[in-house]
Amino acid sequence: MAKKVKSNINSSKKIFVLDTSVILYDHDAINNFHEHDVAIPIQVLEELDNFKSGNDTRNFEARSFIRLIDIASKQQLINDWVNLDSPNLGKFKVVLNEKPLKTNAEEIFGVGKTDHKILNAALSLKEENPDKKVILVSKDICLRLKAKALNLNAEDYETGKIKNVDELYAGKTELNAFSETLIDKLKHNHKIDVDEADLPSKKANHFYILKNKRKTINAFYNHAKKTLTEVYSDEIFRIKPKNPEQAFAIHALLNDDIKLVSIQGNAGTGKTLLALASALEQRKDFRQIYITRPIVSLSNKDIGFLPGDAKSKTDPFMSPIWDNLRFIKEQFSADDKMSAKIDELVATEKIAIAPLAFIRGRTLTKIFFIIDEAQNLTPHEVKTIISRAGEHTKIIFTGDIYQIDTPYLDSESNGLSYLIENAKNHPLYAHITLHKGERSELANLANELL
Questions:
Q1: pLDDT confidence of 316, banded at 50, 70, 90?
Q2: Please, which pLDDT band fits residue 192 given cuts at 50, 70 and 90?
Q3: Which residues, other chains included, contact 292 with Cβ-Cβ below 8 Å and sequence gap of 6+?
Q4: Taking each helix axis from N to C terminus, what angle separates 415-423 and 379-387, rounded to the nearest 10 degrees?
Q5: Dihedral through CA 433, CA 294, CA 308, CA 49, nearest 10?
Q6: For the chain, give me the number of helices (H) and strands (E)?
Q7: E-strand spans in 61-187?
Q8: In DSSP terms, which residues pair with 133 in a beta bridge?
Q9: How many angstroms separate the CA atoms of 201 and 65, rounded?
Q10: Would you place residue 73 in the very low, low, confident or very high pLDDT band (cuts 50, 70, 90)?
Q11: How far is CA 53 from the centre of its chain?
Q12: SS3 string of 196-208?
């Protein structure tokens, strides 16, 4: 309910207590609760202090929040309620090491753990403000469950979350019984005005599979030009689309009118391979091909703990991208010239493969920029990446919104879902969801049955 909170339970002002996970997800969270008050336990500031150094997004969020609090507090003490900047917002305060008189989380769950001190801060506010509803807001499910066990209201931070993710925009529509005459005309002319076609009203770019009995044609509706264009299934850089969705993805990737593309799908549907092949096909049109992915370690240790230089630390995380590049190179095994050209592109860094943190602060001009595993990004990270785009840059996000490795993100709150939902009506954007796995029958077995 932390989404520009409007309660239909009680119209009175509430107190929302934010934990560290919320701040690291969105440093501007304290400004998203309308007229309600926001409390920050002192332990949250202590944890943010540990996160303020570094180049990761969570380090940026920590630093930004600390600056925000410093500006908002001005010359005032923040152990008491302080007005937030906007007159439409409530107040905020930092809650010190308060111990509730009735229910003590540390006595129940154990002493010394930061989460339990945060619970006590919320419980103390509940005792001090019996006339207000106190709600702990956290992206940590376990912490929310502990709060509810203590009769403390708790909820997820929902700003940026997508509702009904199973109905998320897929980018294509299949129309049966479409005009046979128009199918023939589109096949002959390759492009027709949309006014001639009886299509459902669309506010943005969209792909269609148009059918009439045994006749079928794949098409792309360009909303800005009001045209319907035939989508071909030609190979690019020796990679041939194996289904209509892959052909749609290639069309979007090669289309000069489209500057922002997202491709969503299960493992093995060809997302990264198609993006990389399309980049190589257009290598002469861009200054550099930059492929990246967020580094999500499977342990709590940062990559700084790994041995070696920066490249040797990050290469294991980038190996899936190298595998795709190697697969493309294998398609030219009989063409020594092109095989050598691919090696040259890597050696001269015309193709650059590096972690996402390495692009912070850069302006991306005339770059074909592929962000793989984008489901592991927050909405703020996606916004930051797109804001880096300079002239003649094309940005592609690929990922599977149901395969998330980043703590506190899920299919509803990740940056890829956020992008698909919020950019779907923009004229520079196109999206396609890939459903059919093309890696192997064995891989399909895992996706379908296990």
A1: low
A2: very high
A3: 353, 354, 355, 356, 358, 359, 369, 370, 371, 372
A4: 60
A5: -170
A6: 14, 17
A7: 82-83, 91-95, 133-137, 153-155, 172-175
A8: 14
A9: 43
A10: confident
A11: 23
A12: HCCCCCCCCCEEE
What tokens were used for 64? Answer: 């930004």
The amino acid sitting at 353 is I
Alpha-carbon Rg for the chain, nearest whole angstrom, is 25
Question: Which strand (E) or helix (H) includes residue 184?
Answer: helix 180-189
Amino acid at 172: K
359-371: average pLDDT:
85
DSSP string, 110-160: -SS-HHHHHHHHHHHHHHH-TTSEEEEE-S-HHHHHHHHHTT-EEE---TT
Question: Which of 201, 280, 284, 183 is CA-nearest to residue 236?
Answer: 280
Type and span of the H or E element at 191? strand 191-193
Tell me the one-letter amino acid at 204: A
Cα angle for residues 321, 323, 324 (degrees, 5° grid): 65
In this chain, the answer to whether the domains covering 14-155 and 165-449 adopt an identical fold is: yes
* Domain definitions of the chain by residue range: 14-155, 165-449
> What pTM was computed for the model?
0.86
Structure tokens at 443: 């891989």
Per-residue b/e over 375-414, b at no fewer than 16 CB within 10 Å? bbbbbbbbebbbebbeeebbbbbbbbbbebebebbbbbbb
Is-contact 257 222, C-beta < 8 A? yes
Pairing of strands 288-292, 91-95: unpaired
Q: Which fold has domain 165-449?
A: Rossmann fold (3.40.50)
Alpha-carbon distance of 324 to 178, in angstroms, equals: 38
At 71, is the secondary structure helix, strand, or coil? helix
Q: Which residue type does 372 have?
A: D
Q: Which DSSP symbol is given to 336?
A: H
- CATH for the stretch 14-155: 3.40.50.1010
- Residue 324 tokens, joined: 């795709």
Contact between residue 296 and residue 406 where contact means Cβ atoms under 8 Å apart: yes
Size of the chain, expressed as the number of residues it contains:
450
Burial class (CB in 10 A: 0-12, 13-18, 19+), 341: middle
